Structure formats: structure tokens, C-alpha cells
Amino acid sequence: MEEPRKEITEIKRGRKNLVATLVGAVVAINLVVLATSQSDAIIAASDLSRILTVGAAAVISAIVVARQNVTGIFGRAYLALAVGLVLWLAAESTWGYYELVLQIERPFPSIADALWLSAYGPIGFHLFSTARFYGRGVGRYKVAAVIAGMSVFVGLYITGLAGVSQLQGEGAELAIAISIAYPLLDTVLFMPAILIVLNSGKGYLTSIPWIFIGWIALGIADTLLGIAQVQNFDGDLFMINAFYVIAYLAMAAGLWWYNRFFIFDKAKLRKQPAAAG
């Protein structure tokens, strides 16, 4: 009885520490970005905040893949997530290269968009694969409500985007299409993410679905970004950047949690008898 209690205590402590660290990191990074909002440093601060946070998630995902291997549903799912995060890291780095090195402010559309969009395939595979496990027991009414809500959102978003668009001239149609593509793809992946969040809180280890919360935050960021893109990035973009930082850090937190508590450590198990002796 003592061992399970010790494990539960460790899980609770780990969850509290992770929440505190996540909140602290989100606040600290966004405060740094906000502090530069009235200067030219805002571009560098924003770009680097996204590159570093998605980079952290990508590194942890690589550790997960290395420790877990790529067999089974979770092995393949987390490999796909790692591929998606690496593509996002490449996209954020490309965007940063355009802005910080080439001095091309807000390069849209660009190669970065191709990298971002290409990540939806592997990340979608991860979400739908893990949803088969974490989404068990979700009621049909919840599924129907989420599908209906997402359908209404898509219709309103596309209509609203057309109404506020300021894009004109060569390339305007492509830019609008890309602006619509992000939230449309997000909506498809919103469904498993929202259902899993609604189905959470049933166990010590799975009470907070970090990665799925991160995906919802990213969808909000993409939606706001789509509106900003068709308005030629007019206005304050701080909130958009903040949601991307939240999304990337939440995914990093989820990967850290998974690596800490869900991967079977054979080396540690082999050491236990020797330690007991």
C-alpha cells in the first residue's frame, strides 16, 4: 500500500510543479515580448519566443521517440508529433530568417507557410491516434455538439474573413486561401482535441491533457492570425504571439509529462533489485 501512495504523491507533486513552471514560463516570456512592444525589438522578441518554445517541444518530442521507439500506436503517434513539431520549428525559423536576417517584415505568403501546413498531416495523425485511447467514453451528444459548433465556426469565420479582407493585387487570392486553410485544418483537429479535453480529469496521470490544450490554443492563434493576414497585419499582434507561445509550451509540458510518467524505464527497473539488496 505504501508504494502506490508514494507514486500518487509524486504524481501530484509533479503536476503542481509542472503547472507552476508552465504558468511562470508563459508569463515571463510574454512579459519580455510585451516590454519590447513599443520598440523595434518587438520583431526579434516575438520571433525568438516562438522559435525557442516550439524548439523546446521538438527537442522533448525527440527524446520521447528515442526512449519509446516507434512501435505500436503510441510509438507511431509520438513519432508523427515529433515530425510535425520539427516542421513547425523549421517554419518558425524560416519566418525568423526572413524578418531578422533578410529584413523582410511579415513574409506572407512564404516557404514558412508551406512548412506550417505540411505539419498538419503528422500532427493530425497523432491527435486522431491518441484520441482513440484518451477519447473513450465520450458521449454522442458531446460529439454532435462539437461537430455542430465547429461547422458554425467555419461558416462564420470564412464569411467574416471575406468581409474584413484588405488584400488586393497579385497573390491576393493565394494569401486569402492560405489564411482560410489554417483555421479550416485547425477545425478538423479541434474535434478530437476538444472531445479529449471534455473527457479529461478521470485519472491522476491523464487529468490535464496538455498537448490537446496546446492544440486549442494554437487554433485560436491561427484564427487570429488569419484575420490579421487579410488585413495586412494591421494592429497589435501581441495576443497572437502570446497564444502561439502558450500552445508550444503546453505541448512541451505534455511531452515532458509523457516522458516522465508514461514511458517504461527498463534500466531503472533492472536497478531496483540491486538497490533493495
TrEMBL record:
The chain crosses the membrane at residues 18-36, 48-66, 73-91, 111-131, 143-162, 174-198, 210-231, 237-258. Keywords: Membrane, Transmembrane, Transmembrane helix. It comes from the Archaea. This is Uncharacterized protein.
